[in-house]
């Protein structure tokens, strides 16, 4: 079975975006992300004393919640471009990337 093209691909992308947004809302409502941030603040606060076991347990909770979040909301490390029909973006243009040193003191 091949990948959908045209309007079907566009509809599939729209449906995927809707599902991901619903999952984001669900995870936000569940407080998973907020809980991870609260634990990070506790670990960062040097005035709170914790033994090694407490730190290890908090890290385990963070790791577990991040795995749950990552399962339902994968990292967006790349951007998929598509045309107005939902098909893969294709170009024959050549791209030139120029690296510019932003610090004028460096030469």
Describe the structure.
The protein is an all-alpha fold and 107 residues long. The protein has one domain (1-107). The protein is 54% helix and 0% strand. The protein has helices at residues 7-30, 32-44, 52-72. The radius of gyration is 22 Å and the shape is flat. The model has no long low-confidence stretch (mean pLDDT 78).
Features:
107 residues; mainly alpha; 3 helices; 54% helix
For the largest beta-sheet, the strand count, sense and barrel status come to:
none
Helix count equals: 3
Contiguous low-pLDDT stretches (5 residues minimum) are: none
Basic shape: flat
Percentage beta strand: under 5%
**What percentage of residues falls in helices of 4 or more residues?**
40-55%
- How many β-strands, per DSSP? 0
What is the element string, with H for helices and E for strands?
HHH
Helix/strand class: mainly alpha
Task: Please provide a brief summary of the model.
By secondary structure, this protein is mostly helical. It is 54% helix and 0% strand.
Layout: helices, strands, pairs:
Layout: H1 7-30, H2 32-44, H3 52-72
Helix pairs in contact: 2-3
